[in-house]
Amino acid sequence: MLRSPREVYTFQASSCENVVGFSALIYHTLPAVILLCLPGSGWRLFEPFKRDDEPAPATEDDGNLTKIKRRLVFQFCELVAVMLLLFQAVVVMFFLYMFFKGGVFTCDKHAVQLFGLISIVCFVWIFTELQYFARFREHVKMLLGAFQESDQTGDVRHHVMEPGVDQLMNQSDKALAVVRKRLYKATRQGDLREMRDILDYAEAAGLTSEEQGFPRKSYAAASLFLGFFAQSRKNPVHVAAYHGNIRALELLESRGFDITAMDKFSRVRFSTGDLFWYFARFFVARPGVDGGGSDEESAASIFRTTLVTPLHCAVSTGQLEAVRWLLSRGVSARTLARSSYRSDRVPPLFLAEHPDVVRELLVHGADPLAVPDPGFMNTLTALQLAYLRSNYAVAQELEEWGGDVALTPFHSAAGRNDVMTVRKFLRKKTDVDCLGEMGYVGLNRRTPLHWAAVSGALDVVELLIEAGADPNFQDARGRSPLHWAARLNRTDVVRSLLQAGADPKLVDLDYMTPLMCAASGLDATREVFGVLTSAGADINYQLPTNGDTALHIAVREDNEQSALAILANGGNLMKMNIEGLRPLDCTTSTRLLFEIKRAAGQRDVMISYTHSHAEFAKKIRKALEDANVTTWLDLMDPSGIGGGSVWREEIARGITNAAVVLCLLTEDYAQSEWCLKELALAKQVGTPILAISTEGVSIGEDLQVYLYTRQIIPFEPAITQTKRNSTNVKQIEYDYDEAKFKSQFRLLLDGVRDEIEKNRDAVQQKNIASSRRNNGLKQTATGTILATTGGGGFSRLFQQWDPDASGAQKQFVFLSHGDKHAGFVEQLYRELTDAGVVCYGDRNVDGQDFEERIHATQEAILRCTCFLVILSKQTMGNELVRDQLAFAEDKGRPIFPIALNDLDPGLDKRYSLARNELFHFMGNGMSFKPSADRLIQGLRRYYNARDESQGTILDNGTRIASANTSFVSFTFSEPGSKDHEAIGEPIIQEGAILRESSDFPRTSSNEPNGETESSTVTRNFESISGIDDAQLDLSSTHVRM
User: According to the UniProt entry, which residue ranges have a biased composition of type Polar residues (predicted)?
Assistant: First the structure.
């Protein structure tokens, strides 16, 4: 029989009785063990959290954060678990006492030993059950969306302490307390509708009056008491920033909340859940990284108090959009937190763990060189802290902005623009270019001038330069202070350094000049590039490693402002790097491409239209530009300016340089000679054509040459009404169904973008291929005549001809070029090859001397089917061509001479002649007869001899001109005298077509003596400045505009 418990537990009993007493302690925890199992039993009575059987429907203003409630029975279980843990600790101490006393193993009764062994198993099982209880608790809590302890509540105060709402509403101070509590709760849950209702109630209840001072007075900045304690204001602005709720922040700001106020956000919580984890953490691992929990929400000690701004809260949780929103409202990125712990007195930058957040802070003035607590607990920069956290992404971002390790007080003073402290160091003869403490060299080898340039400390920069600091001192990356000032857009510092002799052409270890560094920075201004280029920097300098220019770098980094600034200072948009890529090829951003092309004057789409439909053309242009497609729309009516050469040249240039021509098909489009010429020129230069139909126009023969029916996008469904402009009846306007217009425009936009991308890819591939060929030439020196004449392209164009090969007996033509006109030869070669004609030409072979080359050429000419020779001023003086031509003639080969005319008619003439056939004549009269026959054959299509009664047989004195014109016309009276030849040479408009019309004269032979009646002919001129008055009968001349 056991003694009384008092004797057993005071160690007055025997060894067996002590073992039984120890085991009894464990067995007596059975009720607690059973109770901890009940929350997981599935019985509704013991459920851990309250159920929301009828959840409210979600609305637009609802957030996704909810604060779940633990039931009272579950809170009781948490207390039981804490008591069980404490009880287990007592059992362990009791066992240890018995163990060291030596009476544990002296009991020889088997029943007692078995009894004690089972109790040990139960003791271990209790800890296992506590682990399962904790895991079950965390699993269900997170299943419901409560990831932190603060996301749930026991709601004890509501059951025990909170009085009735009606009683509170009668007293302003208690009403204010209710408003603050509910506003805080609604903000945590992201319930905007509830927030608005609470704020509206506060305003209706007079709480926003000057006397009550809601919200400014109610949420005044918190302060530290005795340097250790502070009471949290539970500011909803901090909560909204912490959760990144932009709409809540906007609502609170509009209601007068201070978005810069400091508050105690981390608080010591007192709840059964916190009490449970306070003890359970020693035995049970919390889920999450490093034991879980949130340092931002729960303070470790009541003596550790930190006051922060909403920006600190947003940065700590990586809420990028909230950070941007706060910074855009003028919140300072340099505000230090106030804390009872010196190590917690840091700016927001020290809390950032995401490079994008770091970038936003630095853009808005955060100091990457700040040392918050120099000489005490926190003598670290943000860069050092990032390395300590192994956050290399943040560290890299900081280094790009000039971040450095803490060096000396001299450096820190220079970075803070502290002129007085810097003067003190200079008076003490401190080395103005010191690199570290005690003679040590810092990690990045930076001087105080580097730190001042990075921080934009102009006053200190000027002071250090005056004291003899070296403006060209290069750090570990080879960068001078000018590099960093340009990189960080410190215009005044850049100007000051240049005046002090800083070298604008100095390159760092990556061959980057200061101007290139400025291009890699974010939103560098035009002024920075202007100052650097004025000092001698090359705006089109290319990196020797890859050939990139500053514009390549800016575009690749998507720095729109920097790219436009470079263009404004002379950046070359067509400059290619080693890979053959232009700056335009270095980005896929349609918006950036649009802005750059617009700034550079490049247009992707040329709109061809009749000026009677200018309103529709402008609408299409606006829609395209809204979709980031650059367009060119000629708003100048040619009928009003006479179609001058400048206008024609601009039209031709627009068509030639465009990626696609957009044709607006209307009823009068095919009747416009100018529109048809635009399509003809587009087809001639290879610019794709897309068409829009608006009036159900049928495609006639004139348009079928240029357009494909499948390329026409019908806009008729989008047009509800056609009308004429009230002030100008010649202008046609439409009423639109905007929904259908957008639908049809999307079809058009897809086609336009496809053509733009095809053109861009084609240009890019062409440039890449050209660049590779050029790079190959630089690496190969043949030492033959081709190397000295620049004909290396022929060696790559023509394949090596082997007379002994099996395919050498097939038909082929030989092209003699004399190493001239590489571009034309390549184009001709491609056309012949595409037509199935095998073509060989004279080429250089590595390691082959000139005599072997001549021998191979003669062998090829002997076996060729035809001999082609290019005749030009350059080839006629070339020995190779003369010898090859003589050899081909001697061997009886069929010779096809190709006369190459190097005349450049200009874009305006190309536009005018786009729809006309060209007739070629040699200046020395060679082949004149065949050329003249071809010309006469062309004339016969319009100049047909008909019956004189129809008035179309014109004598030699009749001058012919086109009646189809919109330009100035002159009407002459033709005298019937014999001296009509003296009136002047016949004037024929380019591409003129003779048709019968009321404007074209007829001649008659019915007059006596063969004299004709006074008749008129219409002549067209581009201008009247070159007409000799002596040749005109001005009395019978009529000017028609």
Answer: 1000-1018
